[in-house]
Amino acid sequence: MYLSLFKLILRLTLALVLSSTVARAHEVVPTIVDVARVNGAIELDMRLNLEAFLANVDLDGLENTDDTPQAADYDALRALPSQDIAQRAPQLLERWNAVPLVQVDGAPVTLQSGDITIPDDIGDELPRIAEWSLRAQVPDGNALVINWPAGGGDLIMRQQGVDDPFTGLVSGGGSSPEISFSGGGAQGAFSTFVDYIPVGFDHILPKGLDHILFVLGLFFLSTHLRPLVWQVSAFTLAHTVTLALGALGLVNVPGSIVEPLIAASIVFVAVENIFAKGLTPWRPVIIFGFGLLHGLGFASVLGEFGLPQEQFIPALIGFNIGVELGQLTVIGIAFALVGWAIRKTWYRQAIAIPASCSIAAIGAYWVIERTLL
Questions:
Q1: Which of 39, 97, 263, 304 has its CA 20 to 30 A from that of 349?
Q2: Burial code of 4-26, b = ≥16 C-beta within 10 A, e = fewer?
């Protein structure tokens, strides 16, 4: 039985390592649009993965473009020079105008394509994100609505240039509320709080594989609840601190530093699981330090979404609660899978140590990948 369990864990390790080599290049990222009204015109400044849209990839609920029937089309477009992609962008705009993407006071607006900037020098390890300006003359009108097409994935919408701007998330197939050109459409505290809970949860499940492995590293330490509670409490307190500081802009550490260190924290926790049979006196302190790193990683996600300044605290609390719910879900799933064996004498040798070896191997690969590749 031990051998069968070890083989299963080894297969899972190989699958996770292989998937991690393409996750960053093919991961689905939300589209971001900054909306403003300037001199009688509507201006939309977008950041998006144009290749995914041109390949007709259904981004709703998708994590990785390899998991779609259009994967080959996406890869073919991804291999083209940036100018070729820019020339195809009007095809996408024609489809969006037919939706229509923008309405003003209930009437459709025809957008015109402006400047497109697509990087050519980012390598194959990251998705290629284009910056695209769209514009339409609209001298009259009080409010606009953005209708995000089905299959578009998540759209982060941020109003610019007004007091109390609207900031929100629109899912594929959905529409924004009516947004006044004069501002004042900022969300209330409770709705902001509720909206940011799934954002935090989503960053753990399904998208936060590194955070999932770290939490599993905490889970596999011992067969008792108390060590797990101590570790999770230290981790939660620490990442809450740096999440707040990072989101406020008081602490800003480049991802090129944070991401390898997060991977190294996974290795440390997993390796210590192999040699320590219970909670050591220094483990909660070390976990607290690693929690500070993970909080900086969470803060980078909030930076992408653009926290509403007037509702900063509710958004921050909602995101953090979502993260905690995601972590508790990971622990709950782990307990459902192996909880029956925790009190067995062979649990540590047959499950906890092999699982920790697998986690350490993945973390070590990520340290190398994020540092050298």
A1: 263
A2: ebbeebeeebeebbeebeebbbb
Reading the block at residue 105, the tokens are: 């006071």
Sign, Cα dihedral of 67, 361, 370, 230: positive
Q: Residue 59: phi, psi to the nearest 5?
A: -90, -5
What are the phi and psi torsion angles at 56 (to 5°)? 60, 35
* Phi and psi angles of residue 117, each rounded to the nearest 5 degrees, phi first: -120, 120
The distance of Cα 115 from the centroid of its chain, to the nearest Å, equals 27
The single residue listed with the structure tokens 């390796």 is 271
pTM for this prediction: 0.70
CA dist 359 and 357 (Å) reads 5
Amino acid present at 60: D
Token duo for residue 43: 């201006």
- One pLDDT digit (tens) per residue for the chain, 373 residues: 444 544 444 444 444 444 444 445 567 788 999 999 888 899 999 999 999 999 999 988 777 787 789 989 998 998 888 899 999 999 999 999 999 999 999 999 999 999 999 987 766 556 788 999 999 998 788 899 999 999 998 898 888 888 878 888 888 999 998 998 887 666 677 877 888 888 888 888 877 888 899 999 989 987 777 778 788 888 888 888 888 888 777 887 777 788 888 999 999 999 998 988 777 778 888 899 998 988 888 777 666 666 666 677 888 888 888 888 998 899 989 989 998 888 888 998 999 999 999 999 999 998 888 887 6
Q: Which two tokens stand for residue 69?
A: 């029937």
The answer to whether 126 touches 4, Cβ cutoff 8 Å, is no
Q: What distance, in Å, lies between the first and last C-alpha atoms of the chain?
A: 38
The closest of 74, 67, 79 to 23, measured between CA atoms, is 67
Which residues touch 106 (CB under 8 Å, ≥6 apart)?
A: 145
Report, in angstroms and rounded to the nearest whole number, the Rg of the chain calculated over CA atoms: 23
